[in-house]
Amino acid sequence: MQRIHAAAKAVRNHFLMLPSIRGREWRNRASAGMLWAFCGAALDIGFRRIRGAVRSVQKYPALYLTDLASVGVALTMALLLRYGPGELSARPETASVLLWSGAQYLAICAFVFPLSGLYSRNWKYGSISDLFTILRAVLLTSLLLVTLLFFSTRLTDIPRTVVPMQSLLLIAFLAAARLSFRAEELSLRRPVFKSGRNKDAQGDDRIPLLLVGASDAADLYLRALARDPNATYVPVACLDRSEDQIGMSLRGVPIAGRIQDFEQVVAELQLLNKQPRHIVFTEAPAAFGEEASDALLRSAERLGIAVSRLSQMTELKRAKGDNPYELRSIELTDLLERPQAALDREAIDRLVRGRRVLITGAGGSIGSELTTQVAACDPAEIVLIDNTEYNLYAIDMTLTESFPEVPRSSYLCSVRRSQRVAEIFERHRPELVFHAAALKHVPMVQLNPCEGVLTNVVGTMNVANAAKKYGTLAMVQVSTDKVVNSTSVMGATKRLAELYCQALDLHGLETGLGPRFMTVRFGNVLGSSGSLIPLFKRQLARGGPLTVTDANMTRFFMTIREAVELTLQASAYGFEKQLGQGEIFVLDMGEPIKIIDIARRMIRLAGFTPDQEIEIKIIGCRPGEKLFEELFDETDKRISSPVPGVLGAVPEAIPLPTLRDAFARLQRHSERGNEAAVVSVMRELLPRYEHEADLKMAVRNRASLRPKNRVKAKAGKSEASYGAELRSPGS
């Protein structure tokens, strides 16, 4: 077709470019030449099409001969159905009609079938849509037969009803011949155990599976399993969301109940000697409901049944060695994924689009997700600030690859340096500021309180002051649930940062000047650097033990993406609708989860038995840790929030002059390394903050880890003198 189009275009161009002074004879010669070129291109395409049809027939010679035999059988049966056996035997002339018309139809089909594409596809993977190829071929051949008979005999020798009947019969025969390519899927035998055992050709036992979900993904998996001669799994039953499916089957696998009926179904299968040893979620567990899937996982843990999730076809993976139908262990993000709060993406887009945005801590876990989501909203410019060279390089490369059109500037900068921060603000004049830079590891900050104050308190003050001075429209501070009834230095420093932003926001409300200062508070995020899940994975890879600080310790969890999305939405509502002035936006994180339950669940999902194959070791609370976290402080006033997925808290405000004076003293004491003075100032501002017990705990924990010779050498030292040795050189 491309060559015909090119030839036709050349003809048109030659006619348009012919000078008017040329004669008709020259024009005719040119048009004849172009016509020959056009015909040559058409013939070339026709020959190529015929050669392709011949090659396709050579690939399926048996199918081609079967189709031609079906043509004769279909025409014979059509005549038989039209006249009946008795009348047909009384009409000897029908034999000659059958031979004459049959020969013509056979010749037509022999030529048209290959050109129609009946042999140019792999019918082993044929589907319903491929039936249209058969319908098209039969319709075309029938029309050609009627046309040929009309011109030769005026359709006097063959009844007109024979052609439609033979067409329907031929469609059925051609489709049946192609269904034979998928004969392995036509078995009506259910893939269940016989006499308690089900062996493959090699005599090895196959693992019985219980599928959760009877959707398209389950259908694809069962197809792949049926085609794999070396499959080591055999499905015995299926669970689904809806009661309507119960009693039906999916490719021979019975749908035995709903996901809530898991234990009952397992008991029934056990009575039939078909107890499943593996459970496979065909979709993400959250798709079946958080409560139902979590209950199933707990029951599976108790029964000792391994659980996996089927990798989805749409998931992007490395090409080498990947099987799209492989079973993979369920990630904790799958288990904790809760239904997303309704996101007002238009409000987020209005907040960011066309504005200059500055993000501190841009290379960290929260900061990098913030950066990518902000970049997706088409800002005028993104300014990245981070104190770690590699993190800054990594997020800069991410923007280069994913959002090359977004202007950006990257600065290696510590928020502790007020002059450097002010220079960046003066140069770029950001309209929105997201402050995610902080020291967040509770034990490390506990052992280095001066460093924690300099980054979390002084650094926040420097960024907020620069935002106020250089005309920023809004600043959003990322906070943590560790600030609530804090017992750690990290929690106390972040609480002070919250109070400073609250004081600036209230000051702007009173004076009508200055930017909005908003704080968003949430708990643990999955996948962040230094978080729980990577630690458990490393410990599992080493064969255990998994270390848990306390059997009763609980935490709130949320995915990084969800936390950032809700942070942006709360910021958009707060800025656009002037909501939450003097308040803290608290993300709704659901119910807290026991850490030891997560450890047991991860061991089960890895295919091991907790406390038998993999040990769980209780190591005691680390410095500054609490057994449970809260989202609201005792002094916070809880309020309702119009932002979906977000709650509201109003802390007891501290006057801005008081905070500025205290922060100046904190900065001075921290730079001198005076920890006692730093703790004293923090206690002035936060009367309920406790510090001594945590320091003693740190001393005891460190003392228990000292080498024996060091213990002997320092046996005469007091606990206080040894506590001084625990301070890092930079404190």
From TrEMBL:
The entry's keywords: Membrane, Transmembrane, Transmembrane helix
Compositionally biased intervals (Basic residues): 706-715
Domain Polysaccharide biosynthesis protein CapD-like: 357-641
Pfam families listed in its UniProt record: CoA_binding_3, Polysacc_synt_2
Highest rank taxon of the organism: Bacteria
Residue ranges, annotated region (Disordered): 706-731
CDD domains: UDP_invert_4-6DH_SDR_e
Membrane spanning residue stretches: 62-85, 97-119, 131-151
Family: Belongs to the polysaccharide synthase family.
Protein's recorded name: Polysaccharide biosynthesis protein
Species the sequence originates in: Sinorhizobium medicae
